[in-house]
Amino acid sequence: MSNEVLHSTEFLTRLLSGEREAFSELLDLTSPRIYALGLRMLGNGQDAEDILQETYIKAFRSLKTFESRSSVETWLFRIAANEALMLLRKGKKSSADMDLDADKPELEEAPEIVDWCCLPEHELMNTETRTMLEKAAGSLSPNLRMVFLLREIQDFSVKETAEILGVSEDVVKTRLVRARLKLREELSVYFRERMGSEVNDG
Amino acid sequence: MDEQGHCKGYLTRFSEYIDGELPEDVCRMIEDHLKECSNCTIVYNTLLRTVELYHELPQGEQLPDGVRSRLFKRLSLEDSQK
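The joint structure predicted for all components is written out below.
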């Protein structure tokens, strides 16, 4: 995690003593990431904003119960992740969609064999690819997506991710593997089309 | 993937290999396999590239217009806005 202020004892003391200025600083330091998590989980700005507001309202109310065993960020992301998953569940008929395949480690199908790894950087990272990466991540089931975003985008460790989601470290690892493999498949299909037919057979 | 069943077990291992979570003997086994299996090499390289590409995405950029002020307002923190 990047910001040292958040981890300083001085900041924590100010925050826990109820200093409003400290809470404002907390908002400015963390809200873009909380918003981004909501946006990637729900896929629209309105829901992301709702998650953002609910997260800090709950955080503000429960500041006294914050135990400094976990970091402030882990604690905030825990609230935000719960909000996001709850909002997603509201939109579903059953919870089955949430867990579909999430904890099986392997893919059923044979993997796509397309050698796109050595495409030039400008081919790999342009606006179109970025959009595709976001879309592919958005197509993961919510449980896979959440683990993937926390681990790969927000850089939380396996232990922190497990703490945020209230699951075991093994569950985090399994979901991450599965998410990565699924995304590699999506990216392979995408780059195969971009590279044309000459590499179709690997 | 020369024979599906044979190579399939390596798929999840590649991910752990990328994270450096495997014991040395398993790493060596994977490296030996990669030397002789061109399809697995492609899968491994593209998996690594997938992970790298996602690491390049922003963790969070600036909040869109209005989102910050509405958040502060909701929390009645307007006075402490910078």
